[in-house]
Amino acid sequence: MARLVKLYSQVDNIKQQYFIRNRIAEENRQKENEAAVRIQSWFRGCQVRAYLSHLHKNATLIQKTWRGFTARVLFRQRVKTAYFIMKMNFYNKMAVKIQQRWRGYYVRKYVHSYYARKRYLEGLTRKNAHIRRDLEEFAELQRKERERITLEKEEQEKNIQAQRFHFLLSTKQRPGVFNSPFRAEPDEMELRLRKVKPLLVRSAPKERKTPDIVPDLSNLMPNRERLPPIHKKPQGPFRPALEVQQQRQRPLEPSLRVATSITALEEAREELKRQEWRTRVIDQTFLPFSNTSRIKRYEGLMHTSTPFEQVAYGTKHFREEHKEYLQGKKPFKTVFTTCHVFDKFGRMYSNAGNIV
């Protein structure tokens, strides 16, 4: 009972302490809440960052492993491709050498003849020398003709000038301009003036006076046409006599049909045949490991052999073609010697000491 009385006497003090402590708690609640939130955020951030770091390490390991695998696969594929290309280049080079040897042998044996070619070149040389000699003679004749024409023109001009200066000719009483008394001999112009005749000065034609009254004769001759007037002076102008003479004596200009040789068509055909023989190119791709080339048979050229008749070209001077020598009974064997470069494949790249 005494305890209850004591508590009852302390009610006011307890209320006051309760209100004071509640106020203090309310004042510190915001700070404590912010501190708790900061602690939680820091802890959760550390936890998430650690987890992300773990994920990044695992992802890097996976990517590294996968990229290494794909790079090794790609590298092996490139090595195989390079090896195949190198092998095909070697085979193509060997095929080109074989074709070169065969074409040279074929051309030397069945297409060209050394002695016929030599005779042809000798004849061509002689003909060339003969044509050059004729051309030189023709050029010399043309040069002499040009010099003669030039001299004639100069002489004609000098004569015309002498005719114009004929009044300067010396007389018995007075020497002329070109005949100086201080010279031992007269000038060339003086001698030319003595030879030529002076130019005749033509006076202008006089005008005729027409009568004032002209009789009308149309009634007397109604059915007759009036004749053209008669001109005593020839109508002109006329071309010089030298130009007319050159036109009459000009050389013949043959047409294209006349200038072309009669055997031009045959020569063109022969040239086409020679071009075909010289430019025989096989456009088929060389495949060393295929059997496609064994099925095909040998096909001769169109101009070298025909089932009807032998062409005229090459039968007299060149060697004839024999198919039995060109086409064998057994197919061609595609056997090639190995190259030391190919032996290094599979022994140049290693992985931890193992041969790839």
Write up what this structure looks like.
The protein is mainly α. It has a domain at 1-30. It is built from nine helices and two strands. It has helices spanning 2-9, 11-111, 114-164, 188-195, 241-248, 256-259, 264-278, 292-295, 323-326, and strands at 350-351, 354-355. A two-stranded antiparallel ribbon has the order 1-2. β1 (350-351) and β2 (354-355) form a beta hairpin. The longest helix is centred in the N-terminal third of the chain and has 101 residues, at 11-111. The protein is elongated, with a radius of gyration of 61 Å. The model is unreliable at 314-321 and 349-356 (pLDDT under 50).
Instruction: Count up the helices.
Output: 9
In round numbers, the mean pLDDT is: 76
Low-confidence stretches: 314-321, 349-356
Find the count of extended strands (DSSP E, 2+ residues): 2
How would you sum up the global shape? elongated
**What order do the SSEs take from the amino end to the carboxyl end, as H and E?**
HHHHHHHHHEE
Strand arrangement, major sheet: 1-2
Strand content: under 5%
- Pairing-aware structural class of the strands and helices? mainly alpha
Largest sheet: 2 strands, antiparallel
Helical content (DSSP H or I, runs of 4+)? 55-70%
Distance between the termini: 103 Å
Radius of gyration: 61 Å
InterPro entries: ASPM (IPR051185), IQ_motif_EF-hand-BS (IPR000048), P-loop_NTPase (IPR027417)
Keywords: Calmodulin-binding, Coiled coil, Cytoplasm, Repeat
Region (Disordered): 210-237
GO molecular function, one term: calmodulin binding
